[in-house]
Design a protein that fits this description.
heterodimer, A: mainly beta, 7-stranded mixed beta sheet, globular, B: 108 residues
Chain lengths: 113, 108
């Protein structure tokens, strides 16, 4: 049983398109996150949600919009994709009482052509 | 914002103890220190977390000096399967900053 799942695993698209990445966790956690890992393997947090409320909103272009329909899901929608958006995007979840013990999904490799 | 830095890479041999240090000079009072392991094409995996002094679990130890400006992940008796990238993570509820990552290569 997958704890944190992401779809799709690979996403190849053209510049200017709009795409979404879905994330679901079945751990019963109340906090979810989106991270970006660039080609140099640097990991940077983008957003975190606690009980569907936005907690961390790092400086990312407003083309990126997270959406949390419920505690088990945190989707990432990206408008007007640019070449620099190419990266691996990781979703993660944790329980707020143990917020630093995060469980990560397998990642979505986004390639913008 | 806190900046966390780590050595880019380290080499070791099977059976040795490996110590990986993370520097976080601007750590805030409420920040915790967490370490993650990442294998290729996988998401990071939690190893250990601490606030101060020493923490030990079944796979690693974490040493944090009194000033908390650095932390050291200690892996006892590494094996080939410990070859991975190790990240420290510093932060609290409203901020999370990953270190630059240390690529550990374990040789037979």
């Amino acid at each position: 049983d997958t704890a944190v799942s992401q779809t799709p695993k690979y996403l190849v698209t053209q510049m200017g398109n709009d795409k979404s990445i879905k994330c679901e966790q079945n751990l019963g956690h109340d906090t979810m996150y989106w991270y970006k890992q660039d080609s140099k393997k640097f990991l940077k947090i983008m957003f975190s949600y606690n009980n569907k409320e936005l907690i961390i909103n790092e400086t990312v272009p407003n083309r990126f919009s997270p959406k949390s329909p419920d505690k088990a899901h945190l989707n990432l929608h990206i408008n007007s994709l640019e070449l620099g958006d190419s990266a691996v995007y990781f979703c993660a979840s944790s329980q707020s009482s143990r917020e630093h013990e995060q469980f990560f999904g397998p990642g979505t490799r986004l390639t913008v052509l | 914002l806190a900046k966390t830095t780590q050595p880019i890479s380290m080499d070791s041999y099977e059976g040795q103890e490996v110590n990986i240090t993370c520097s976080h000079n601007n750590i805030a009072t409420n920040d915790y220190i967490t370490w993650y392991q990442q294998f290729p094409s996988q998401g990071p995996r939690f190893i250990i977390q601490g606030y101060k002094t020493k923490v030990t679990n079944e796979v690693a130890s974490l040493f944090i000096p009194a000033d908390r400006k650095s932390s050291t992940l200690s892996l006892p008796r590494v094996s080939l399967s410990d070859t991975a990238v190790y990240y420290c993570l510093v932060g609290g509820t409203d901020k999370l900053i990953f270190g630059t990552g240390t690529r550990l290569q374990v040789f037979p």
